[in-house]
Specification:
This is Spore coat protein U domain-containing protein. It comes from Rhizobium loti. It is a single chain. The chain has a single domain (about 40-155), classed as Immunoglobulin-like, CATH 2.60.40. It has 1 helix and 12 strands, in the order αββββββββββββ. The protein has one helix spanning about 1-15, and strands at about 40-45, 50, 55-60, 65-75, 75-80, 85-90, 100-105, 110-115, 120, 125-135, 150, 155. Strands 1, 2, 3, 4, 7, 8 and 10 form a 7-stranded antiparallel sheet that branches. A 3-stranded antiparallel sheet has the order 9-5-12, with no helix packed on it. The protein has a two-stranded antiparallel ribbon with strand order 6-11. The N and C termini lie far apart (about 75 Å). The relative contact order is 0.24.
Length: about 160
Amino acid sequence: MKLFRTALGAALLGACLGQPALATTQNVIFNGTISPTCTLVIATNGTMTVSPDLQTLSSHNSGGSAGTVTLTTTGGVSLSVDPVTTTTVPSADTTSTTWTPTYSSAGAHSIVETGSATAISTPGADVVSVHLAGTKGGSNRFANGNYQATVTLRCE
């Protein structure tokens, strides 16, 4: 029986040597995940100017300008501005100021000027204009000197 199996194996091997090899294929699958992300790059800082009645210091006043930031996102994020927490005012200005930051965007996402958070669901790039207004109440006025405030634009 052992001789029979050896002879049969040799015969099959001889028959297969003349045949082409059978080709096989296999699929290789690639997966990838992109988490919601965004980048913010400051293009220009803003400039505030005072109103004729000295009660508003704003980037919207004549001669003022918005700060600009380039936003690039995958979508699935929210854009917002934080309340102003860092200000520098001259020592002569002893009355309170209400600071109101706002923003708008143009590009892949058109956002009308707002101070509220805005959901961005689609990918794209935008130029975000950031504005700031400081206001005095009652008979209070802005004093002579240098003013500076920091607005934090947040994308998360």
